[in-house]
Write a structure and sequence with these properties.
36% helix, alpha+beta, 122 residues, two-stranded antiparallel ribbon, five-stranded mixed beta barrel, 7 strands, globular, 5 helices
């Protein structure tokens, strides 16, 4: 019985690590709108302060701010994958997706722009 629990835990960890946010098909629509930079997940400053790792990154200047809202912090999906910051991610039927705001962070800038990931064409 002990082996079964350990095997189930190992399988859960392996599945979680295999599903990378930066490769998620759940973000395909967002990726099509962001041709000048990287997709990022953004959280409010209050939420970021509550998370030790994310808060430390913000203090170190590794995160961008959401344009028009200095009370938000954005982390690139590749950074979230690299550091395994699962607090910014939730699962969907199509794979992992940002828990709060999805944004585009153009290269060479320190500000991100929130984008619509609903998949609806206007």
């Amino acid at each position: 019985m002990k082996f079964t629990g350990t095997a189930a835990f190992a399988l859960t960890v392996a599945v979680a690590m295999a599903a990378k946010l930066s490769d998620s098909s759940a973000l395909d629509h967002a990726k099509s709108q962001c041709t000048t930079g990287d997709i990022s997940c953004c959280n409010s400053a209050e939420e970021t302060k509550a998370d030790g790792i994310l808060g430390n990154l913000l203090a170190g200047g590794l995160l961008n701010g959401l344009l028009g809202n200095s009370n938000s912090a954005c982390a690139k999906t590749s950074l979230i994958d690299e550091l395994n910051i699962l607090a910014s991610v939730k699962n969907s039927d199509s794979g992992p997706v940002c828990k709060n705001i999805i944004a585009c962070c153009p290269e060479g800038t320190k500000e991100c722009i929130a984008i619509d990931n609903s998949g609806k064409k206007e």
